[in-house]
Amino acid sequence: MFSSNTYATRRDRLIALVKSGLILIPGNTDSPMNYRANIYRFRQDSTFLYFFGLDEPGLTGVIDADSGESMLFGEDPTMEDTIWIGSFEPLQQKAERCGISNTGSPEKLNEKVAQAVAEGRIIHILPPYRAEQQMQIAALIGSEPKASQVLINACVTLRSVKEACELAELEKAMEVAYLIHTTAMHMAKPGVYESEIAGTMEGLTLKYGAGISFPIILSKNGQILHNHHHHNLLAENDLVVVDAGFESYRHYATDNTRTIPVGGRFTQKQKEIYDIVLAANNAVLENAKPGVLFRDMHFLAATVITDGLKQLGLMKGNTAEAVASGAHALFFPHGLGHMLGLDVHDMENYGETFVGYNHEVKRSEQFGTAYLRMARRLEPGFVVTNEPGIYFIPALIDQWQAAGTNSDFINFDKLTDYRSFGGVRLEDTLEITSHGARVMGKRIPITVEEVEREMA
Ligand code: GLY
Description:
The chain has helices at residues 4-18, 46-52, 79-85, 91-97, 106-118, 131-141, 149-160, 164-187, 194-208, 268-287, 294-311, 319-324, 352-356, 394-403, 448-455, and strands at residues 22-26, 32-35, 38-39, 60-64, 70-73, 102-104, 123-124, 211-212, 217-219, 239-244, 246-247, 256-261, 383-386, 389-391, 423-425, 428-432, 437-439. It is of the alpha+beta class. It has two domains: 4-160, Creatine Amidinohydrolase, Chain A, domain 1; 164-455, Alpha-Beta Complex (Creatine Amidinohydrolase).
């Protein structure tokens, strides 16, 4: 946890934004794998972590925006809890750790919410994403939960700009990100199974923190964007996409992608595609700064990719027209990045559009750009991923070719040689500073020379 004052200040800032009503923030409960005592690794709700910091199941936070008071509800531990799971800290003591003096049992929580409902007060809740949460809130308020837009907007406003303690935590977490990605580089040799590398990486995340921040994507079939299957045996010259993140004990996430050649040397053909993706990544790093639309950074990456593919003869025509028409999305069918913080896709449970878009920037409906999670103007303190990629997806190529989609901009006949290429994605995390952007942590080897040197 951070200091109790950190949480008290955040709650005060939330009250100033929400202004009135009762704000209900349930923490998560344990989630059984197959019976009650056999549970998945506990993961606290990120909003609860942000405002209360306590990393234990079964707690609910309430913030009264009219009186300015915060309360913590839950059970005191029983002797059984102490014996079986070592839980012994009284609720009151937990509350003090996050700057709260008022506590109550779950029954008191029921009474408090029932009274507020009876008085016709607004009950602010966030969109529930777990069945248990949904049922708890429905039981408390006596109706189906309906998320409060005021609360969503206030949480997005606060959590989008990372505080100094959060930036320091993310920066520290990047040390483990560096370790796991260079470990993958050292291990990617012919005769090794993808699962051996993924398992070693996941083990390291548990050795140094709370584990992975999302299921590891590691595959020589890198053209499958979120490929969680790790069953392939690696052979010389396979190209492996490794997209993996670490979660610190305070639950801050990292998210990086590197693409590595099995055996340690890129082929000429791989280098040519790789260097285009690297140029796109670097162009965003150099141009991202406060006031710039992240959507424009996405289009900048698309432009660099289109220019590069034209030089290789895979695309053709006017670059600006090709990008406007979405032709680049045959090769770069996802968005440039997303916010990062307590969640790997930070705050996505509030609704992706409420995080990445606003009154000024509306989501595109065009294939490819529609997947852009983050589009709005950058501000100092934002933390975003920068993850351009080029992929050769045979089914998509066939579909576009058959339909003649963007045929003015794509040399389909040249793509035959690339059908088994796979993909390349290169992802860093950027902190937006007062005047530009910086890669968080020590940059994981990224140029062809750096990667080959690390793998040697
Ligand atoms: N790096 C995984 C993701 O962004 O979904």
